[in-house]
Amino acid sequence: MEAVPRMPMIWLDLKEAGEFAFNAAVKKSAVNVPRDFEGCSTLRKYFGQLHYLQSRIPMGAEQEAAVPIAWTEIFSGKTVTHEDIKYEQACILYNLGALHSMLGAMDKRVSEECAAGAFTYLRDHFPHSYSVDMSHQILNLNINLMLGQAQECLLEKSMLDNRKSFLVARISAQVVDYYKEACRALENSETASLLGKIQKDWKKLVQMKIYYFAAVAHLHMGKQAEEQQKFGERVIYFQSALDKLNEAIKLAKGQPETVQEALRFTMDVIGGKYNSAKKDNDFIYHEAVPALDTLQSVKGAPLVKALPVNPTDPAVTGPDIFAKLVPMAAHEASSLYSEEKAKLLRDVMAKIEAKNEVLDQFMDSMQLDPETVDNLDMYSHIPSILMEKCAALSVRPDTVKNLVQSMQVLSGVFTDVEASLKEIRDLLEEDEAQERKLQELLGKVPPPQGSPPPPSPGLAEVSKECSKYMEVHEKASFTNTELHKAMNLHIGNLRLLSGPLEQVRAALPSPTLTEDDKQVLQNLKRILGKVQEMRDQRMSLEQQLREMIQKDDITTSLVTTDRSEMKKLFEEQLKKYDQIKVYLEQNLAAQENVLKALTDANVKYAAVRKALAEVEHKWNTTVQTLVASYEAYEDLMKKSQEGKDFYTDLEGKAARLLEKARAACQAAEANRQQILEKEMKKQPPPRPTAPKPALQKKPPELEAGGLDVGDLPPLGSLVLSELPEELRSL
Description:
By secondary structure, this protein is mostly helical. The protein is 70% helix and 2% strand. It contains 23 helices and three strands. Helix 1 crosses helix 2, helix 2 runs antiparallel to helix 3 and helix 14 runs antiparallel to helix 15. The longest helix has 105 residues. The relative contact order is 0.07. This is Tyrosine-protein phosphatase non-receptor type 23. Keywords: Coiled coil, Cytoplasm, Endosome.
C-alpha cells in the first residue's frame, strides 16, 4: 500500500504493590518505576536480585524467613497477600511485561516481544494460583496478544520497506493466527469471567483485527498473482480481501476515529485494486476466476518470538549483592536442574504444539462445530426478530388495508390526470386539423405532412404547458409503476405477518431428515465430542506437567549432594515425570485414529450437510424477506402519500389547462369562421360568357346529330361546379 495505516494495540495496567517487609528504598524504586525503558531496566535488576535472594534465604512459602507480601489484583482491585518471595518475583515479572506492552503500544511500536518473553517466563516458572491476573489462561492470552502485536509491528515495517508481496502476505497471515489464538482465549467462559468488563472490548478489537489482517494478507496475495500475471487469481484474492475488510468494518463499530480512518484508507486501496482487476479481466484477459478454496491457503510466517528472560544475566541484573550469603555451587546446580526441567517441558510442548497445529488445521478445513453441526433447534420456533414484527403489526390491524387504499387513491388520481392530458392533446390535434383544412380551402400551400401550422398564441402556450405536464407525467408514471410493483411484492408478506403465528411458522422452511440422516448426525456429534474430550485431556495433562515442574525444588538435596553425583541426581529426579509423559504420548497417538473416524463420518455427513445448508439458506432468506417487507411498509406509505400529493397538484394544473385549452380552441374556431366569411365576400358573382361558335368545334355528339346546343348546362353552372364543396354550400 502507498502508506501503512495503524491499528490501536492493547496494553496492560501495572500491578500496585502493598506490604512487603523489605528495605523501603529498594521497594520504592521497584514498584514506582517510570513508564519508560529505564523503568524496564529497574524492574529487571530488582527481579534478578530477588532471584539471588530466594536462592539463599528460606523466604518461600511456609519457610522460616517468609514474610507477608501484598499486591493489588488488576481486574478486581482486591489486595492479595502471600508469604512467598516468589509472589514478589511473579508480580515484578508481570509488571515488566505490562510496561513493555505499554511502551509497545506507543508510536515507536517496539518491545512487544519483550512483553511476550516476560509473560512466557512467568507462565512457565511460577505458580498460577497467586492471583487471577496471573492465571494460566490470562497469561496465555497476554502472550498471544503480545506476539500478535509484535508480528503486527513487523508487518508495518515490511510494508513500509516494500518487501515482496508473498512475504508480506505470510507475515499478515501469522498476525491473524496469533490473534485467533487470543480470540479463542477471550471466548473461553472462564477467561471471560476473569477479565470482567474489558473482555468484550478486547474481543471486539481482536475479532476486527483478525478480519482486517486477513484482508491485508489476501490483498498482497492478489498483488503477487498480478506480478505472476495470474489475472483470474488476482480477481478472487482482491474480492476475498474486500469481503474480509467489509467484515472488519462491521466489527469496528464504536472503535476510535483512527481505526475508522485506517479502514477507510484500506477500503480505498482494496476497492480500487478489485475494481481495476475485475475490469481488466472482463475486458482484456478473460481468465477464469477460480474459487478461493481451490487456491493454496496462505501459511503464516512467525518471524517474532518471545524474548527469553534470564534472571542471572549480570549484564541485566548487575552484580549479585547476596553472593556471600549462600554457596553459589548449590545455586548453580539448582539452575542446571531448572534448565533440565525446562528442556523436558520444551520437548513435550513441541510435540503437543505440532499435534495441536495439525488438529486445528484439520478442524478448520472441516468447518465443523459440535454446537451448530445440525442447527435443528433453530427450526422449532419463530426467530425473535420475526416475533417482534408480528407483535408490532398485531397492534396495527389495518396495515394492509391502509396500504391498499392509499395505492387505490393514488391510481385514481393518476388516471384522472392522464385523462385530462389526453383530452387536451385531442383538442390540440383537432384544432390543428381544422387549421390545416382552412389553409387548403384558402388555396394556401399547407405545411409539410407532420409539420403543424403555426397555432394561435393562446394555443401555443397551451401546447407548451401540455408538453411540460406530459413529460412530468411520463417520468412520474415510471415511479408510480415501480411503487405498485413494490407494493405487490410486499403486500403478501405483510398479510402473512399480520396473520396467526401458526401461518408464519408454516411459511418458514424446515428440514426433513430420514432416520439414516439422524443416525449420521448423531455419529458425527459423538466423534466431535471425542475430539473435544481429547483436547481437554491434553490441556489438563499439560497443566499438570507445568505445575509439577514449578513445584519441583531440589535445592535442599543439592546442598548435600556431591558435584560428581549431580547428573545422577538429576536423572533420578526427572523420572517422576515419566508417568505423565506416557499419558501425553497416548493422547497424542490417539489423535490419528480420532481424525480418521471423523473423516469417515464427515464423508457420510456431506449429503445431510448440503441439505441442511440449503434449508438454512432458504430459512434465512425467508426471514430476511419478511423483515424487509415489514421495514418497507412505512416507506411505501410515505411514497404513496407523496405520489398522491404530487398527482393532486398535477390534476389541478391539468384541469385548469384543459379549461384554458377549450377556451383557446373555441376562440381559434371563431377566428377561422371570420376568415372564411371574409374570403367569401371577396369572391365575384359568377357570370355566363357567350361561346364563340366559330372557334369552337362541335363535339362528336353534335356532329353526329345526337345532341343539341340547348341540351348543354349554362356556363355559369360549370364555373360553380368547379368550386370546392364547402364554398358551393355557401
